[in-house]
Amino acid sequence: MRFSRQMKTVEEALQELLARLQKLDEEQVELGEAYGRILAHDVIATCDMPPFDRSPLDGFAVKAADTVHAAVDQPVYLRVVETVAAGQVPRIPVDPGCATRIMTGAMMPAGADAVIMFEQTENPGVHSEVVGIKRALRPGENLSRRGEEIAQGTVVAHAGERVNAGTIAVLATFGYSQVSVIRKPRVGLLSTGIELVAVDEPLAPGKIRNSNTAMLAALITEAGGIPVLFPVLPDELAEAKQKMTGYVREVDLLISSGGVSVGDYDVIASLADEPEVTLLFNRIAMRPGSPTTGLLMSGKPVLALSGNPGACFVGYELFARPALQCLAGKKQVSLEPIKAQLGSPYEKPCPHPRYLRGRLLQKDGVLIAQPDFNDKAGNLGTLKNSECLIVIPAGGRGKQAGELVDVIVHAQPSWREEV
């Protein structure tokens, strides 16, 4: 199987993986812990918003009919019956010829059907028994009606939505102190290869520190998952298979790095031939990371990424991040590329689409995707600068500067112009 792999596109492989994933169970969390989580159910407005007729500004609540003849040079004078602040309930109705001094957000008094701002009255900063109105008003002007923004029973946030700060505000407004969300995916992480040593161990000849596990743990945490770290996997097939069979029982998704190519010690590649293992894909039309592999072990998904740091990073963004979104209950999961102009020519030929790490810039109103030319699969020095993956189509000509390319954004752009 290692030497007779069937090629699949990135999109085909991703759909093959997502089709095997199921949304996780839900759990109740406090409102303060809901940020970044995925809603398990629709959220319903428990009351009208606004919950009462209210003033959207500081001024005077009046009857519009009393202001018909008001003008700057001929004010209409009304008797002020009370002052109402936000949070207070008006006690006195507004009868003809009367007005109530009212603050932003305060409940409208009975009888009033419009509000005039302080700036359109005489001596707005002076508290007096009479106010001079200098402009005619229409019924309903400067008035927020009960339920005009959101009616009670309206769905204000849908199942599958990610909770952001705005969602938190909506939930708080409607009294949701607890929220039903999808539980965080537990994601197992392991690396293969006897050449790896721990981050805090000294280097020896032929050895490298295990940077992939640390990187993947950070990416999983960023995506809302819980990384579960396992020891480095041995290169011996029977022992590796036994350990992985145990590991997958503890997690929702197992991600490995290394061991997916065709070398003598690539244990994950050999694992794909085992009868208890269901192979989803093990050769993808992409550079870097074409040996990226998807498996099922004991019914659990295993995503095996390349051991080269750059290829591992790209494989995570193309497959692991969407998988985590799917597990967490996001309704529609896809890579969702945008269009941008290529900032510099990339003419390196490739038989498969190439995914270049890069950054996004904005110049003269045009979105520019600037490639990171440190794009060898084993290079990691500029990983920290990556904001997007720039897709260079398969073929011999590459792309010239200024041509449109697909861009998959994975981080908040910094918009820095330096290269």
TrEMBL record:
Cofactor(s) essential for the protein: Mg(2+)
GO CC aspect terms: cytosol
A Gene Ontology biological process term: Mo-molybdopterin cofactor biosynthetic process
UniProt keywords, alphabetically: Coiled coil, Magnesium, Metal-binding, Molybdenum, Molybdenum cofactor biosynthesis, Transferase
Domain MoaB/Mog: 188-326
Functional pathway: Cofactor biosynthesis; molybdopterin biosynthesis
Superkingdom classification of source: Bacteria
Chemical reaction(s) catalysed: adenylyl-molybdopterin + molybdate = Mo-molybdopterin + AMP + H(+)
GO function terms (MF aspect): metal ion binding; molybdopterin molybdotransferase activity
Coiled coil region boundaries: 7-34
Record's function text: Catalyzes the insertion of molybdate into adenylated molybdopterin with the concomitant release of AMP.
UniProt record similarity statement: Belongs to the MoeA family.
Protein name per UniProt: Molybdopterin molybdenumtransferase
Organism: Brevibacillus panacihumi W25
The organism's taxonomic lineage, starting at the top: Bacteria, Bacillati, Bacillota, Bacilli, Bacillales
